[in-house]
DNA sequence: CGCTTGCTTGAGAAATGTCAAGTCGTGTGG
DNA sequence: CCACACGACTTGACATTTCTCAAGCAAGCG
């Protein structure tokens, strides 16, 4: 564990270096790549004489820089990456974290240069396919084309995750969602879904969630106080994944309930005022449609606000 | 303009209907699709005997529903769409708005079902390619494959836009960013970049920005008071695009300056305390790297925070 | 003509940001 | 080897923004 912390120190203290310098780029086999991407599709004929490279990266080194010219698209084989963007004034927006199986740099294909930067959070390894030869290769190896389409499609679903993390919920919920996502990704990688070793710092998490890093700290403490998890710096053990997931699903409206239950069961009822509901656009359904006036105040609405539901509206150390 | 409002009423009051019901699906030509996507690549041989359909949609009808099975991927030819996700409790998260040239439903390819829903904000038209035949078609028509890759790559860059909109900035800035994006998209479609007709309601915008709809209203008023724009319900005229863009770029730290200038020039100096800086993860770069102690405080750092840069730290109506 | 809906605005409450202090672990340098 | 400095993380107190609730206005539609 000490080691992991040391790794991070290295990370944050290094100005990302160019990937090319980082390690020996070795020639790899296309079928390895196909296997990596859970492709049960057979590799096809031309699989072994293909321009697929393998790049090892040390922790803290950049795979590519913002505005850097695109030379290849990458597939993470090992390790994890932070994807981010830096504003003119230095504000760093973390867009996500990538793991084994994910595509990196594909968003640069349409631009010719990278709109984002990627830096390894730990020692890592990626497959690289030169964009020069990309389209030709895709034609030669249909399996790769299919694989790439599927991978990118999956990547697109991540966009919604970003929105989920940052939009319209209390800070603790954002953190819970983040942890649940991490947990699921760990599981997908065959590791324990409850013992997380977060490779990124609080600031990175904060940026990703769209809150202040102090708020992240506080949220960790709150979730720990409620008994959902055990936090020791970057080691996080999820003690009650089920409830964490339930909590993560809550919109501001529903926090009260869950929170209260939580509080009752494990904490001495001191925290949690909670009662919000940022944005919503409730599935209207209420209003009569110009047409078939019958449903004018019908019950199509999914779940009503229950104004003043929680009873303990203001537990506030009462 | 009245008309547009009427259209919207239909939208919000309608439970989205299945696209199939909405209009006659007509057979279309693949080369039309290729032309739509700014492909100067020639269409190739098999272009005209291809399973490309054209679907017209009336305002308010859904192109596909959340969790609905994927049958095709779509390319917007005309009109605009709202992409959203609905939580269990009815909370509707708007993920984005799509226009001419954008791909819809591609994120479902890897899942077999749609993780999001899409509904037309106005009368619209899309090209549809059945997923059944998709991969075969991509092999037969390399130009289409290339085009799809490029389009999806562009779509991926949208993920960063979502983050930009929702993360770590004051509400007025989020709105400004949103408007700038809208403006740019209008321009890309060949329309006026300063006269916007927002097809979506305040709630949708609010959800997209991650704030309460009242806050959106107030932010509109603020930007209008500052003289950046003229707002009349869903008609927005941008009066000073340059300054709006500058403002949109600001992080919380820099709002003071711009806000002050704005205030001084057009408003009677009453609003705007402002002084934040949510999350940041400043590119550290300062601390020495364990190895090669030379760079201990070197200048590898990309762009230093300029601590206390803005001078007018707390202009506060002074 | 009244209803509904969307939009705006106000006032008070709550959440989060900001500033600041303190702890701890690590790496540096004496 | 130890002292020191630096950075990450946590926590507290206060300031500020945003949310929530509530009311009012305007417009479209039945």
Report strand order across the widest sheet of chain A: 1-2-9-4-7
- According to CATH, what is the topology of the largest domain in chain A? Jelly Rolls
Q: What is the C-alpha radius of gyration of chain A, as a whole number of Å? A: 23 Å
- Kindly give the count of domains of chain A: 2
CATH level 4 superfamily of the largest domain in chain A: Jelly Rolls
- Give the biggest beta sheet of chain A: 5 strands, antiparallel
Number of helices of chain A: 10
Q: In CATH, what is the class of the largest domain in chain A?
A: Mainly Beta
Q: List SSEs of chain A in N-to-C order.
A: HHEHEEEEEEEEHHHEHHEEHH
**General shape of chain A:** globular
Percent range of helical residues of chain A: 25-40%
Total beta strands of chain A: 12
Strand content of chain A: 15-25%
Mean pLDDT of chain A: 75
List the quaternary state of the chains: homodimer
**Helix- and strand-based class of chain A?**
alpha+beta
Q: Which parts of chain A are unreliable, with pLDDT below 50 for 5 consecutive residues or more? A: 1-22, 256-280, 282-318
Question: N- to C-terminal separation of chain A?
Answer: 41 Å
Assigned CATH architecture of the largest domain in chain A:
Sandwich
Report the largest inter-chain contact.
A-B, 83 and 87 residues
Explained architecture:
Chains A, B: Pfam families: cNMP_binding (PF00027), HTH_Crp_2 (PF13545). Chains A, B: This is CRP/FNR family transcriptional regulator. Chains A, B: Residues 57-155 form the Cyclic nucleotide-binding domain. The structure is a homodimer of 318-residue chains. Chain A is α+β, with helices and mostly antiparallel strands and 318 residues long. Chain A folds into 2 domains: 2-159, Jelly Rolls (Sandwich); 171-274, Arc Repressor Mutant, subunit A (Orthogonal Bundle). Chain A is built from 10 helices and 12 strands. Chain A has helices at residues 2-13, 19-22, 30-36, 131-140, 142-166, 171-188, 202-209, 213-225, 241-249, 252-266; strands spanning 26-28, 52-57, 62-64, 72-78, 81-86, 92-98, 103-104, 117-120, 124-130, 195-197, 229-232, 235-238. In chain A, the strands form 3 sheets. A 5-stranded antiparallel beta sheet of chain A has the order 1-2-9-4-7. In chain A, strands 3-8-5-6 form a 4-stranded antiparallel beta sheet. In chain A, helix 7 (202-209) crosses helix 8. Chain A is globular, with a radius of gyration of 23 Å. Chain A starts with a helix and ends in a 52-residue tail after the last helix. The model of chain A is unreliable at 1-22, 256-280 and 282-318 (pLDDT under 50). The interface between A and B is large, with 83 and 87 residues.
